[in-house]
Structure formats: C-alpha cells, structure tokens
Amino acid sequence: MKNDKLRTIKITKVNSESSEITSLWFIDKFVQRAKPGQYVMVWIPNVDEIPMSISRINKNGQSSITVKVVGESTKALVSLRQDERIGIRGPFGNGFKVKGKKQLIVAGGSGSASILPLVEEMVSKNYNPTFVLGARKADMLIFVEPLKALLKENLVITTDDGSMGYTGYASGYAAILMNEQKFDQVYTCGPEIMMSKVFHAAEYHGIPTQASLERYVKCAIGLCGSCLIGSYRICKDGPVLNSNMLRKIKDEFGIKRMDANGKYIRITH
Amino acid sequence: MFNRFSPYFYQTYSSFSEGDLNKISLAIEIAGLKLRNPTMNAAGILGISPLILSRVYKSGAGAVVTKSIGPFPRRGHKNPTIVTVDAGTLNAMGLPNPGVDYFVKEIQQLKKMKIPIVASFFGGSVQEFAEVGKKLDIAGADAIELNASCPNVQEELGMLAGDANNVEKVTAIVKEVTTKPVFVKLSPNVTNIKEIAKAAESGGADAITAVNTLIGMKLDINLKKPILYNVTGGLSGPALKPVAIRCVWEIAQTVNIPIIGCGGIVNWEDAIEYFLSGASAIEIGYAIYTRGIKVFKEITEGIEFYLKENGFSRIEEIVGLAHEK
Fold first, then answer.
1. Which of A31, A40, B286, B311 could form a disulfide with B237 if both were Cys (CB 3.0 to 4.6 A apart)?
2. A221 touches chain B (CB under 8 A)
C-alpha cells in the first residue's frame, strides 16, 4: 500500500476559484490514478493534517485540491505558494461509482470539488447527467465554467439569495426535478443537511443514492475510529455511502456527529 | 479468497475432513472471563462507540476493548497523528476520549448487546486511575485494562509502566475498588519488563497485556523535520512483533498470571507464535488496517486448523509450549 506513505511534494500552482475558495495544484503519481470521490490527507507542516477531496484528476498531469477557508488549518493551507511543499497521503476511500443511465447530481458550496472528476468520468462514458449546483450567493459558486462546458443546459444553478440562477436551495430544486423526471441514480456532496434532504427525496422516489460525507478524519486507514458514523468509518468504508448504508445511519445523518473527543454534537449546517 | 492468510491454503497438504473440527474448541477462560475465542481488538483501535465495537464483535472477535478512557474529555494530539513506516505504523493519537462520565452510557449500551467488554483506562494520578476504573466497573465492563503504558503523553502524565513501584501501587489501589478482572498493559520501552510484570502481579493484577507500542520517529527529508505533530509516536505492526514476542516470553517465565499478547499480529501463524510464547489470548490492531475487520475471523479459523493439524483440541494446550525443555 505505497499510496499510504506520506510524501512531501511541491505545489505547482495556486488559483482562486471564488471569493473564499482556492485550488492548489501538484503532481503526484498516485493521485493521478485516483477515482472520483476519493480524498487525500494533506499535511500543512507545523500546522495540521486534514482530509481534502481531490478536485481534478489528470492521468498524466497536475491534480488539484480545492480548499474553502473554514479555520486555522485551511487558512494556513491557502496561504502556501508555488514551490512550497505539502505532505500527501492517499488517495483514500471508496469514491463514487458510475451507475444508472440517467443520473441526478446535487452539490452545494465547496461540495462540488469532489464532483467535478465524477462528471468528467460520466461525460467521457457518454452519460448526460443533470447537475443542480447550489451556493448561498453567486460569488460562492465554484466550477461553473468547466461544468457548463461539460454539461451544457443540464447544469442548473441555484443560489439562496437569487444572485445567480434559480432562487432557493439546491435540495429543493432537486426534489422538484425528481418529481418531474425519472432518474435512476442520485449523487450528492455538500452540507450534510442538504444531502440528507436530497437522500429523503430520492428515497421517496425509490432512487439509489451515493452521498459523500465528511467527518473528523485522523488516521485515514481505518484504525482510530475518530471518523465514525454509525458503525462506518468515513475514512475507509466511505467517504461515499450508498442508500443501504445511509438507511442504517438515519439517527446520525444530517443530525449529529462525533467531535474530537468522541462526544456526539448536533449538526448545524 | 485463497491466499496465505487463509487456512484453506494449507488444506492441500492436510488430510482431515471438516467434521473433525467439531471436537475443537476455541473458547478460552482468562482471569475468570469466558470468551468464545481468544481474539480482541487492541485498545485505541476503533473502540470509541458501541456501534463500531459491535461490528468488531460481529466480525468475529472474542471480546472488544474500548479506547483508553480517562477522567475528563481529551481531544488528543493534533494531526498528523499517524504515519506509516516499513512494516508498521507510528501513531501519536494522544488518548482522545470523551471522558468516563460520558463513556459509561456507551458501555451500558454495549452491555445490552451482550458483548464481552474490556474497558481500557488511564488517569493522571493514582487516585484518578482508581476513580475511572471503578466507574467503568460499575457501568458494566467485564474486565478493565489498566493502560500503564501510553508512550504519547509522557510529558503530561508520565509513563507509569516505567517504574515497578508505581505499577504495583496503582494496580493495588485499582484492585481495591473493583471486583472485575484487572489487566495491566505494559510497555516494551523499559529496561527490564520482568521486573514490571512482577510488580503488577504483586499489586494483584489478574492478567498482563504485553505490549503497548515502541517509541519511534519518522522524519521527512524534504522538509527536514519530524512528521508527527507529537514528534515521537508508538510503533505497531510487524516491526514490533519480535520485540513483543520476547516480552511475552520473558513475562511468562516470571509471573503466574495469564498474558494477553499484543503487537503486530496479522495472521494466524503470528497468533500461534504468541500462544507458544506464553500468551493465553491476543489483541489485534495494525492488521485491521492491512487485512480489514474480517481479520478476526481469518485468524480464529487459522488457529482452529493449526490445533487440529497438530492434534490439540484447546488453545490452553499450546500456551507456553515453547518453554518446555
């Protein structure tokens, strides 16, 4: 399991995706072969090591992670510049599986980071998924251009404040689409309460769901138990959980999560 | 799967039928605790919630061991808390846990599922060890494992298992407040583990768990600095196993209480080596990373085949067998 070993690599490029979201690029032969939906552990020397979705996978070139500043560690990460080094372990986790014939994808905020490689894979296999991409306001949307190029009119944008696309929540728009059209696979990544709404709508219509979850990951190799949801280790059994798994964690999904001490706390977004 | 981890790999040159296996029992009794088989997860591995521990039990473990529980909630160290090295991992989790008062509810929930529980615990003082141990006993733990040996909190808490007098004193005080079996988990980072084991036995320990991790380090040569946030960490996995086997061997020659072997067990051959060295039961950690949670089943199946192939019917018949002259 050579991908589990930590290697320190140079950042090749840094670019801003939106007002609070930044991408860092690098070349790593294991990440080049990652599956959509997998993640890496990123070591910010002297600061922390955090899980990050892989937002771009190029078989022979640069890969990227896309970082939203939410605290001290992410702030330190986006302050790094070209040629500075970060540590990488992974790719880890199961990733998304391309299934069905007519897929619906629902992503919110920086959640679309792990979805871009999935859309690329789907389009390369001649699928034509419908994608509802939401954010609180227009300047918090990411990847609109590359997604539009891939999906054309099948990309639907929603913003909570109406500053771009439809006004309202991505989950609400997705529920309307599920009423109007027949989908056979739903993918979702973003705030957990949004994903939980998407899952419940998909359950109502009997559509299998794949949701990419986030928890407090430490070891990333299935040993320490800090990222548990129900009896699943997000780092190893996830981060993508299917409908069967989601049904088994309905007491926790969108409701509560374990903090760093191992105590359950309420989920607020 | 037919690989070298599977006992079926060896079936090609053994001649017995599956029916013969019925005579073999994997059940053990250790310090009065009856278990369906001798495997447990090592403390600190997965043992944070009843749901994951019940998954470990359903996957074939004989009992489950909780994370080390302390008197108060602890976040543990910052990441990186783990780094893989050749034939092992180094970890410095720093004893993250929700505190004993929160955790008693989790133990009660496990008890309802009728799962044998070993509650691992620690304290910052002799009195704290006694208080936490007592609360875990009352909550329903079937045994308590006194973690005298975490290598990652030495600056804050010191390492108890480095001092024979302290080990004896703490063990004795914990024994006073509980009626449950007390396992004392020792460290390999000592000059003379026999002395420490003897002290635990004198203090009244019902069994010894040997061993915790070896202190190690890993540097990054590009950044020219240690990788773990805590700088040092505990080495586990196959790299630890020869050291742990030597510790079990020496302890078996020194004390009369049973030993639970721990360190780098990834397949049934490793488990057998521990039994022959003197261990009556085993704890598994690292192999959950390389083999998955199914490793408990793989290992117990392999032990069963070994017993049969060598004409034994119970594990106790091979415990310490290698010491016979």
1. B286
2. yes
Partner residue opposite A230 with nearest CB, options B51, B78, B98: B51
Mutate to test the interface with B, among A231, A248, A257, A265 (most CBs of B within 10 A): A231
Q: Decide: residue B83, CB within 10 A, 0-12 exposed, 13-18 middle, 19+ buried.
A: buried
Q: How many CB atoms lie within 10 A of CB A242?
A: 15
Which stretches of chain B are DSSP H helices? 50-58, 100-112, 126-139, 154-157, 164-177, 193-203, 241-252, 268-277, 286-290, 295-309
What the block records as the tokens of A139 is 């300047």
- Could you tell me what percent of chain A has a pLDDT over 90? 93
pLDDT for the residue numbered A206 = 97
pLDDT band at B156 (very low <50, low <70, confident <90, very high): low
Q: Which of A144-148, A184-188, B161-165, B210-214 shows the lowest mean pLDDT across its residues?
A: B161-165
Task: Report yes or no: B189 and B244 within 8 Å, Cβ to Cβ.
Answer: no
Using the predicted structure, report yes or no on whether residue B9 has a pLDDT greater than 70.
no
Residue B14's pLDDT band (cuts 50, 70, 90) = very low
Q: Which residues of B are catalytic?
A: 150
What is the percent of chain B where pLDDT is above 90?
85
To probe the interface with A, which of B79, B231, B235 has the most A CB atoms within 10 Å? B79
Q: What is the 3-state secondary structure (H, E, C) of A205-218?
A: CCCCEEEECCCCCC
- pLDDT confidence tier of residue B12, bands split at 50, 70 and 90: very low
Contact B75 A261 (CB under 8 A): yes
Would you say residue A179 has pLDDT above 60? yes
Whether the upstream peptide bond of residue A146 has omega within 30° of 0, thus cis, is no
> Tokens 């780094």 — which residue?
B83
CB atoms within 10 A of CB B128: 18
Our CA-based measurement puts residue A222 at a distance from the nearest CA of chain B, in whole angstroms, of 6
Residue A137 near chain B (CB below 8 Å): no
Closest CA to A92 of A43, A10, A44, A34: A34
B323 to B30, B248, B261, B277, B279: CA distances (angstroms): 20, 11, 16, 7, 12
Is the per-residue pLDDT at A17 higher than 50? Answer: yes
Q: What integer pLDDT is reported at residue B22 of this predicted model?
A: 58
| Residue B152: predicted pLDDT | 63
Task: Find out whether the peptide bond into B151 is cis, omega within 30 degrees of 0.
Answer: no
Per-residue pLDDT, averaged over B206-227, amounts to 97
Q: Which of A41, A45, A225 sits opposite B48 (nearest CB)?
A: A225
